[in-house]
Amino acid sequence: MAHLQIIKGDITKIPADAIVNAANTELKGGGGVDGAIHQAAGITALNAACAKLHGCPTGQAKVTPAFQLAAKIIIHTPGPIWRGGDNQEAKLLAACYHNSLQKAQEYHCQTVLFPSISTGVYGYPLHLAAPIAIHAIRSFPTDLSVQMVCLDEATYQAYLIADAAK
């Protein structure tokens, strides 16, 4: 079972072996955490590395170097766009966390940072997304050290509540 810590902070400023990026399916820097990670890693280098991957389906994960970030790799995982909850959103969101942790293991990482996937511009309700993320991380069979990095107080509180309810 992964060791999980919920913290508040800027995911681009925290050292770790792997940083998970809430990417879009084209793997092109967008808004929110995706844009921040591209900016901090170095837009030109990261865009070039992402272009070689030819996109990534929702729920899957692909890896690039971390370039200027304090990490070895960036794990890119496109989360689901919220469409009311009847379009496999929960299954796809859980897959984002599971497949990202799988990539972290494949790349021999010890520490992994996650943002709150799909709860920004993709509109996934935070109170529904947080329990899915917590369960997916806590149930993954690994000794990885995982930090859920929450940018704001509302996100932080949602993850604390979800973790306490597990």
From TrEMBL:
Instruction: Kindly name one Pfam family recorded for this protein.
Output: Macro
Q: What name is this protein filed under?
A: RNase III inhibitor
- List the SMART domains hit by this protein, alphabetically: A1pp (SM00506)
The residue stretches assigned to a coiled coil in this entry are none
Q: Which Gene3D superfamilies match?
A: Leucine Aminopeptidase, subunit E, domain 1 (3.40.220.10)
Q: Which residue numbers delimit the Macro domain?
A: 1-166
Please give the InterPro entries that the UniProt record associates with this protein. Answer: Macro_dom, Macro_dom-like
Annotated signal sequence is none
Query: Which organism encodes this protein?
Result: Bombilactobacillus bombi
